Amino acid sequence: MKKHGAYVVRFSELKEDTETFEYILEETFFQIFTSPEWESGKIRAVVTVAKRADGITLDFDLNGELTVICDRCLDAFPNKVSTHQVLFVKYGQEEEELDANVVVVSREENQVDLGRFIYEYLVLALPVRRVHPELENGHAGCNPEMLEKLKKHIVTEETGSTDPRWDELKKLMDKN
Ligand SMILES: [Zn+2]
Prior knowledge:
Layout: E1 8-10, E2 18-25, H1 27-32, E3 40-52, E4 55-69, E5 76-91, E6 96-99, E7 102-105, E8 111-113, H2 114-125, H3 144-158, H4 164-175
Parallel strand pairs: 5-7
Antiparallel strand pairs: 1-8, 2-3, 3-4, 4-5, 6-7
The protein binds zinc ion.
């Protein structure tokens, strides 16, 4: 997992018991935290860090869009993303991620990389199926040129053995 100093919060440096950090994540973030899930993005991240007797609570609010590839026409489009996650930081012997919402850090380390968790939460926030949203007139918002190219490709493919993924795609396109 990639780490980056720009998004590290050192708990010993917190001035208040509760502090809020806000980031506008654009090219710089998405050049560091690259993923096969997206091409780029623009996300407003608001993270509230609260000290508690038994650890630290981090409250993540992530809103914006991620540029993803459409499952139907294979063109890129901005997919709206909005998610809220809470991360509990516990103190222990060594750093260990118990699950997406619980992490153990040592007293010496006493910090977390917000970027790493923002990255994970964005991956979780993306829908399994990603297609262009419908237009106001109810038609599919897909790129017609891309669909046309794909249709030609499927026709040539059909003479050979069929790939179930293409069959699925063709069914979808026939509906439109
Ligand atoms: Zn599309």
